[in-house]
Amino acid sequence: MSRETFIHILPLHRLLLPLLFVLISVSGVIGDEEKKFYIAFLGDHPVNADSTLELHVNLLSSVKESPLDAAESMVYSYSKSFNAFAAKLSQDEANQLSGMDEVLAVIPNQYHKLHTTKSWDFLGLPQTAKRRLKTESDMIVALFDTGITPHADSFKDEGFGRPPSKWKGTCGRFANFSGCNNKIIGARYFKLDGTPDPQDILSPVDVDGHGTHTSSTLAGNLVKNASLFGIAQGTARGAVPSARVAMYKVCWVSFGCSDMDILAAFDAAIKDGVDIISISIGGISPNYTSDSIAVGAFHAMSKGILTVASGGNDGPNLGSVSNHAPWILTAAASGIDRDFRSTVRLGNGIKNISGIGVSAFNPKQELYPLVNGADAARNSESKDFARFCMQDSLDPAKVKGKLVYCKLGTGGTDSIVRGIGGVGLIVESDEFLDAAEIFMAPGTVVNGITGGLIENYIHSTRSPSAVIYRTQETRRAPAPFVASFSSRGPSPGTQRLLKPDIVAPGVNILAAYTPIKSITGLKGDTQYSKFTIMSGTSMSCPHTAGVAAYVKSFHPNWSPAAIKSAILTTATPMSRRVNKDSEFAFGAGQVSPTRAVNPGLVYDMDELAYIQFLCHEGYKDSTLVVLVGSKSINCSTLLPGRGYDALNYPTMQFSLENSQEPTTGVFRRTVTNVGPAISIYNATINAPRGVEITVRPTSLSFSRVLQKRSFTVIVKAKPMPILQMVSGSLVWGSSRHIVRSPIVVYRPDAEGS
Ligand SMILES: *[C@@H]1O[C@H](CO)[C@@H](O)[C@H](O)[C@H]1NC(C)=O
Ligand SMILES: *[C@@H]1O[C@H](CO)[C@@H](O)[C@H](O)[C@H]1NC(C)=O
Ligand SMILES: *[C@@H]1O[C@H](CO)[C@@H](O)[C@H](O)[C@H]1NC(C)=O
Ligand SMILES: *[C@@H]1O[C@H](CO)[C@@H](O)[C@H](O)[C@H]1NC(C)=O
Ligand SMILES: *[C@@H]1O[C@H](CO)[C@@H](O)[C@H](O)[C@H]1NC(C)=O
Ligand SMILES: *[C@@H]1O[C@H](CO)[C@@H](O)[C@H](O)[C@H]1NC(C)=O
Fold it and tell me: Among this protein's residues, is 50 annotated catalytic?
């Protein structure tokens, strides 16, 4: 079972230097036996934290030598929202434990690598948008992340009253963290392995910057004249500036985010009374019962809390989407109409070149000597590495005072070039051109064709020279587009569900940052800023969670499924021409906050519906206990879910079998009227070539609010080549609303992906 969790952010140096990310094994060796952390799930029981701990220790004692030994190995007792404990066990002890009647499942704890402002105007949520300020200020948004910066302007509490009475969480004073205010109402951390992290602080304070950024995107106050050294200037604000923030720090600079800590955060946040949970951390385990985010999000959903999670930065590979459980709202990342470009002037003066990236430096000279890294190697052996400007490959004497041209190998080459006396660099890459990398020295990224021109120029003259000007903000068309890095469907978890669900901005997002770390975090960087630019589904996730909180501020009683449905059916469809993976890249489309508040109809679901779905997917009763506790689900006696996917999802995906004949899938859906009492909706079908789609009935009439109406969608598809995908849609339209569901037809390969 391999699952990796990343903070879903995308500076090139994180993305390209996985080796820098030291994965520290935290298994202690005691005697000859290696002990590791495990999480044991138990059945439901009356929730009483004190007696639960005792019960957990007693249970553990039966596989340990003594109660003392058991108490010492116990790491955490999850008792608030579900019944489980984490402990350090040998393989043998774990096996014994899972054989016990009271223990429903034992899963190993895994360590996972870490995976503005203008964006809200672009989405049609201007500062003047209609708001329900009272209910918005009662919204509590939870983030599981790297911590938060309490003194940031985005989290000042001027004008905020006391926390809403439903809040049951805590906030303390910790090292380098002076406590909460009426904006940040909760802040705690979980680091259950007990292993110190030399690069982090045992405190909710954000040493990394990621958590500060995501929190301010979701719920930051309005901050005027925010920018990164004057770049991307504007008013920074979150989706719900009046909402309260609860930070649960579960990600650590050197370790990443562990299952034990993520589950502890869920256990606490659910009990604390949060409204929405935003998780910009990913997992790739396709199994919903062994993935801590899927498991935790299920418990949250069953208590009425929607979890929004990042879909991952593993695009454009198909089948790369993560956090795809049906009860999670999975966010892909799009670019808006903004680009950050630097002009490069070559010494021959013929033509200026445009590169991508953020470089805040004004040149001090008219031109600088320019050298190709390949020509500045330390020796003949290092030549292959020097092309990529890798550590220790360049001769400082050949680089000093010069701009260096290199191919993209690893990230962080600006630090390397700078460290040996170079001025800056031009990086050639055909990948990752969507997102602007921030440089700690004059720098920019050019594509392969432009790179070729630069190489030719360097070889055409005895003393090549160039200059990189400070970055300018430029317009980009067409927008929005799905970022190349944004993970794609189809879902590795099931063939019957479209994922990702939705797209929100995740490219070049300006938001608050930590004062503790330099902008790039690279050696030698002395740039610090209260705001910075980041890219990744880590950024689209809080945008989406912010829209969910915005919708919930209008409809505090809506279920997680209803909020998700409202966001999906009102999304703006994206261009299939610009985004060639179409729905596998953008799901239902780009979030549209103001429309999502007033969707007309919703596809609602409760906890049981998801269980019916899992039974339909072939999950065994015995593994479902991780989700439902000891409510003893028996799939064979449970009312079977209806239709092809056994789910009342607002989108539809039909996967074709290997057949020479047309195949038919029948989807059964029920919509709830949340618009005007008396409404009539007519169906419009848009079927792709080779697919026949019919809906019965074709008209739905409602005479009261919350009335439900059911319908059937029949999809009949001709055989298709392997890995082909086509898509259409079903739109229910009334005189006031448009309720749109994409319908995807896909032919998986033999392995089912
Ligand atoms: C945390 O606080 C300690 C003690 O005041 C201080 O020495 C240290 O520099 C602080 N660390 C950071 C990263 O701010
Ligand atoms: C806005 O920010 C820029 C860059 O930080 C600064 O130079 C400028 O003085 C600020 N303007 C105002 C009106 O505060
Ligand atoms: C290149 O850019 C510089 C700085 O913007 C400008 O002064 C110069 O005229 C440009 N040269 C050409 C050939 O466009
Ligand atoms: C999911 O994981 C559990 C625990 O490892 C395993 O028992 C179960 O068979 C898996 N389910 C599926 C559908 O893969
Ligand atoms: C589930 O129900 C079926 C049919 O009633 C029964 O045969 C089976 O033993 C039950 N399974 C469990 C685990 O109770
Ligand atoms: C729905 O269809 C009926 C019957 O064709 C028609 O009278 C009505 O105007 C349609 N309503 C809408 C909103 O399109």
Answer: no
pLDDT digits 0-9 by tens, 548-582? 999 999 999 999 999 999 999 999 999 988 898 99
Question: Higher confidence at residue 442 or residue 51?
Answer: 442
CATH number of 59's domain: 3.30.70.80
Please state, in angstroms and rounded to a whole number, the distance separating the CA atoms of residues 661 and 682. Answer: 31
Report the chain's mean pLDDT, rounded to a whole number. Answer: 89
Distance 343 CA to ligand 3 centre (A): 8
CB atoms within 10 A of CB 317: 11
Task: Tell me which DSSP letter residue 363 carries.
Answer: P
Write out pLDDT tens, residues 102-159.
888 898 898 765 543 345 555 556 677 788 888 999 999 999 999 999 999 999 999 9
Q: Could you tell which of 224, 225, 529 is best to mutate to test the pocket of ligand 2, judged by most ligand atoms within 8 Å of the CB?
A: 225
For the CA of 208, the nearest ligand: 1
176 and 321 both lie in a single domain: yes
Ligand 6 pocket list (CB less than 6 A): 680, 682, 699, 733-735
Please list the alpha-helical segments (H only) found in 235-334: 259-272, 292-302
Among the three residues 420, 447, 475, which one is the final residue of a domain in this structure? Answer: 475
Closest ligand to C-alpha of residue 198 is: 1
Active site includes 538? yes
C-beta separation of 247 from 218 below 8 A: no
145 annotated active-site: yes
pTM above threshold 0.90: yes
Residue 373, domain CATH: 3.50.30.30
Instruction: Kindly list the distances between the CA atom of residue 191 and the CA atoms of 135, 146, 293, in Å, as whole numbers in the listed order.
Output: 33, 11, 16
Give the Cα separation of 437 and 431 in Å (integer): 12
DSSP states of 426-446: EEE-SSS-SSPPB-SSSEEEE
